[in-house]
Design a protein that fits this description.
Elements: H1 2-13, E1 17-21, H2 30-40, H3 44-62, E2 68-71, H4 74-77, H5 80-96, E3 100-107, H6 111-121, E4 124-127, E5 130-133, E6 139-142, H7 148-161, E7 164-170, H8 177-180, E8 183-184, E9 187-188, H9 189-200, E10 213-217, H10 222-231, E11 237-239, H11 249-253, E12 263-267, H12 269-272, H13 274-278, H14 285-301
Parallel strand pairs: 1-2, 1-12, 2-3, 3-6, 6-7, 7-10, 10-11, 11-12
Antiparallel strand pairs: 4-5, 8-9
Helix pairs in contact: 2-3, 3-5, 3-14, 6-7
Amino acid sequence: MSMDRLITKILETGNPTVAGLDPKLSYVPGFIREESVKKYGKTLEAAADALLTFNKALIDELCDIVPAVKPQCAYYEMYGWQGVKALYETMAYAREKGMYVITDGKRNDIGTTMEAYAIGHLGETDVFGETQYGFLGDCLTVNGYLGTDGIAPLLKVCEACDKGIFVLVKTSNPSSGELQDRMIGGQKVYEVMGGMCETWGAEQIGKYGYSSVGAVVGATYPEQLRELREKMPHTFFLVPGYGAQGGGAKDVSYAFDQNGLGAIVNSSRGIMCAYQKEGCDERDFAKAARREAIRMKEDITSVIPKIAWNK
């Protein structure tokens, strides 16, 4: 099962973190940008080339110590079809290097449209009677606030193609409480959504006790993380908000179970732009990202139970 593969990678690396690959041109070192412009001029193709070169170098330095990458679709779509091609090639390269790929697309629709999203991002597309994968993600972030109509098409693809999803439950942004903290009967909206995740994943639980339906729960709300971990024993968490958004190791610690499992913590700018924060030579950007990834791993693992699988 897809989530089992992610957890196995976490156990192999001893690292419950994911590197978010959300590149802007301003994050890419100048020498890479200049080389791309020399090849393609000041075009979308040059921008996409720079992003891909940047990503590949990061993946090369991270693949043996970080179990997964999480490219955010919007950062590629802003550079047109050329950027989307760079997204595909980034996914392919990460998979080639043995990394688990979480596509951060936050897709949300119903019926045949959601089926198309599910097939395009996770499943196999029928092409003149033959099937091919459109994109190469192992998992997709989705918005569940259209209810079961928006999730059911994904569950079919997850089961058929060994893939997973992460459903938005309690997001890390400051205004999330405007909706997610409102009451439905005696429960807050995010609690209801968490319960729905448990229900949606009940038929697809893997060997580590977690289902193919994960949840996005932000590090910026540690008490809610603690609460939801208790209420959602079969739901694996994707935890944004560490680092640049203000979440710390103690905050994210509440997402983990007694085996040091149950969650994977994201860092995007913190890793990608580590060279800028360090003030080191820009040509050392990938090594700086590796140093930051190791620091992050050590920071988080220092406050959670030892990562081990105890049946």
